[in-house]
Specification:
The chain is an alpha+beta fold. Helices cover 32% and strands 22% of the residues. The protein folds into 4 domains: 78 residues, Orthogonal Bundle (Helix Hairpins), CATH 1.10.287.110; 41 residues, no CATH class; 66 residues, Urease metallochaperone UreE, N-terminal domain (HSP40/DNAj peptide-binding domain, Sandwich), CATH 2.60.260.20; 75 residues, HSP40/DNAj peptide-binding domain. The strands form 4 sheets. A 4-stranded mixed β-sheet has the order 6-7-11-10. A 3-stranded mixed β-sheet has the order 1-5-4.
Length: 305
């Protein structure tokens, strides 16, 4: 938690004139560096993370930032003592309508209304909604397609379970209502906003609702055809490779893509890649040497202008 002696602008490393967007970027950068999940067993990083979260909770909120900048609250969010404006007016050496008791006439007449206004303002401040907490959560590609459950560590070291629904896309935001910072008095707690970050996958890519995979096959499978196992984000399936398949041929697995918002699933498109054995095969070399059809066929004629 930010103490009254800590300048939240210095904690986040931004100038007092920084825009709200700059403040948010600074907070995300520090939070990603100091998050307890990335620094297990490091109490110093955990304390700094709490300090950064507290600072962002203050100046990341437009209203609280305005009150802090004007000196109404301190860096811990506590109210500062109000100035005695009556005494300031009465002690003025210049001629002023309030330099004697008659100058307070308009204040005295509206004293009850003014006091009620102050009470209402105090009640509103005492029952303010808690601010939202923002996080960025990395997940695996297959988790974004099939869905998963994650556990998130909050600034106060407590944890919350997050259900990742199937079909998430990069940058989507999940909202956990009422799981953010506590409100003041009877004010409701804020929310937790979780921006999903999908890690790149070495096998799968996604375009819209379709998933793409490049799959190696043997020369025998390409020439004679075969039934082969194919990975998908939700498990392995069996696919038929037709006889005479070439590298670059694309086969479609219907309904094995990402979930669609309107229902159903996209497809998985499997691009074949014929791969020869890593080690030289004398038998294969002998066959190709004696294969007359292979000597006369020129596939480049089809692409030569």
């Amino acid at each position: 938690m930010v103490t009254a002696l800590t300048d939240p602008y210095k904690v986040l490393g931004v100038a007092r004139s920084a825009s709200a967007d700059d403040i948010q970027k600074a907070y995300r950068k520090l939070a990603k560096k100091l998050h307890p999940d990335l620094n297990p067993g490091n109490p110093e990083a955990e304390e700094k993370f709490k300090e950064v979260a507290g600072a962002y909770g203050l100046i990341g909120d437009a209203e609280k930032r305005k009150r802090f900048d004007s000196g109404e609250i301190d860096a811990a969010g506590a109210e500062r003592p109000r100035q005695n404006y009556y005494r300031d007016y009465a002690s003025s050496e210049r001629e002023h309508p309030y330099t004697d008791n008659s100058g307070f006439t308009d204040f005295m007449e509206s004293e009850d209304a003014f006091a009620e206004l102050l009470r209402r303002s105090a009640r509103a401040q005492a029952n303010r909604r808690g601010h939202d907490l923002e996080f960025r959560l990395p997940i695996e590609f297959v988790e974004s397609i099939a869905g998963t459950n994650k556990r998130l560590t909050l600034p106060d070291s407590s944890t919350v379970d997050v259900a990742i629904p199937p079909g998430m896309t990069e940058g989507q935001v999940l909202r956990l209502r009422g799981k953010g910072a506590p409100g003041l008095g009877k004010g409701s707690p804020g929310d937790i906003l979780i921006e999903v970050e999908i890690k790149p996958d070495r096998s799968f890519t996604r375009q819209g609702d379709d998933i793409y995979l490049e799959l190696p096959i043997t020369l025998t499978e390409a020439v004679l055809g075969a039934r082969i196992k194919v990975p998908t984000p939700t498990g392995t399936v069996t696919m038929s490779v037709p006889k005479g398949s070439n590298s670059g041929s694309t086969l479609r697995l219907r309904g094995k893509g990402a979930p669609k918002q309107a229902g159903g699933h996209g497809d998985q498109l499997v691009k074949l890649k014929v791969v020869l054995p890593k080690e030289p095969d004398p038998e294969l070399e002998a066959f190709v040497t004696s294969w007359e059809g292979g000597k006369t066929y020129n596939p480049r004629e089809e692409v030569t202008p």
